[in-house]
Specification:
The complex is a heterodimer of chains A (90) and B (224).
Chain A (H helix, E strand, L loop, with lengths): L1 E9 L6 H12 L11 E8 L5 H15 L5 E9 L2 E2 L2 E2 L1
Antiparallel strand pairs in A: 1-2, 1-3, 4-5
Chain B lengths: L1 E6 L6 H10 L3 E6 L10 E4 L19 H11 L4 E4 L1 H8 L6 E3 L7 E9 L15 E8 L3 E3 L2 H9 L3 E6 L10 E5 L5 E4 L18 H8 L7
Parallel strand pairs in B: 1-2, 1-3, 3-4, 4-11
Antiparallel strand pairs in B: 5-8, 6-7, 6-9, 9-10, 10-11
Chain lengths: 90, 224
Amino acid sequence: MARVVIDVMLKSEILDPQGKAVHGALDRLGYAGVVDVRQGKRFEIELDGVLDDARLADIHRLAESLLSNPVIEDYRVHVETVHVEDGVDV
Amino acid sequence: MRIGVVTFPGSLDDGDARRAVEVAGGESVALWHGDHDLRGVDAVVLPGGFSYGDYLRCGAIARFAPVMDELVDAARGGLPVLGICNGFQVLCESHLLPGALIRNAGRRFVCRDQILRIENADTAWTSSYAAAQHLTIPLKNGEGGYVADEATLDRLEGEGRVVARYLGGNPNGSLRDIAGICNERGNVVGLMPHPEHAVEALTGPGTDGLGFFASVLSPVPATR
């Protein structure tokens, strides 16, 4: 089994009102020194079988076409491989 | 003339859009998101609402609805398509229109009667208006901020593809006060405010929205 994590963030030049709202809350809570907050999305995709190059290419196509909108967002793909031994994730 | 209105799961304004078509003198046809079928209509409205709960991004999942396969092909072939609010978001996600719509700069859902200026009265959906005409129609959105890169904005302006602009204050942070845009041919129009809520004096701020539906019903070919 493999787990693929896709992080999607608004591009730096796109205004992020949600991040701004969180930033404002941090200020009100007294956290000093916070310069900026950006809010994004994280997708964790569980796959059975082996994650080969072809499937990884599919994941990138998925990230580009559905999970992110390239007009306003960037994405990053991380692969977290999970080994299963005796029914226990290690 | 038959005008289809697509219903997605979470569409809200499909009923009002169908009614607006009828008030303007057309025949409305209900289209279903799950059908690969446009039922031979002469134009299509993608209505407002929260298709698929607005999950992921507004319009992102609706873009992949079965009916969109036929709609995208037909729109590229010249079929008049009007996307209102969530429909505008679907058109951008489908790449029928450039740019994207993001959360309102002021972070609040805005619901008010909005003044617009018609910037392009030559599209399939605005030909019954005059250029520079002012309209008042309802606006109601949480994610209506129109964004695109500078080159795209310049191209839209240069090609006369800004269809309508906000007057009397920008409600959502849309770049260059853009309320609506069209494709190169002028058959596909995306608009954030809701003309279908301004077609009868009893239930809206007036009847200024009727012209969008009257335009597409007009016998004069309006597409460039």
